[in-house]
Amino acid sequence: MPSTDDLNDTERTTEELAEAMFSGNVIEVYFDTLLTFHISLSGVDVFVRHSLADDQIADLAAGFGDGEVRITMPPAIHATGPMPVDPGEAALLHRALAARSRLVSG
Question: Are 12 and 93 in contact, with CB atoms under 8 Å apart?
């Protein structure tokens, strides 16, 4: 088994991510080419790499309150299907947020 220093973030457990955050590191999660999450003990920053309309920003912000990442796409774009998200990145986001929650609440 490789040492944790050799692991990609998507391979780290929730406990390993918590330890990394506790040490002052930032966990980066990428959702396609649209969103980048920076998760650390001090906060969760979301960077949107494309322009969004006001209603899309409101929908995205409301979703975070519900623990979801959702963006209302215009019909022409939405018809092409959902935004492709790598399953490893989606799982990493879930584990990193769980790790941060444990550190902040405990």
Answer: no
Residue 33 domain boundaries? 4-105
pLDDT number for residue 13: 93
What is the reported pLDDT for 69? 72
In this prediction the pTM is 0.70
Which helix (H) or strand (E) segment holds residue 85: the answer is none
pLDDT, average across residues 62-87: 67
Q: Is 95 exposed, middle or buried (0-12, 13-18, 19+ CB in 10 A)?
A: buried
- Pairing mode, strands 27-31 and 35-40: antiparallel
Total domains in the chain come to 1
Tracing tokens 């769980």 back to the chain, one arrives at 98
Q: In angstroms, how far is CA 101 from the centroid of its own chain?
A: 13
Rounded to the nearest 5°, which phi and psi values hold at 27? -95, 125
Q: How many CB atoms lie within 10 A of CB 30?
A: 16
Q: What does the block give as tokens for 81?
A: 């299907």
Gap between the Cα atoms of 56 and 78, Å rounded: 13
Locate 17 and state its tokens.
């991510």
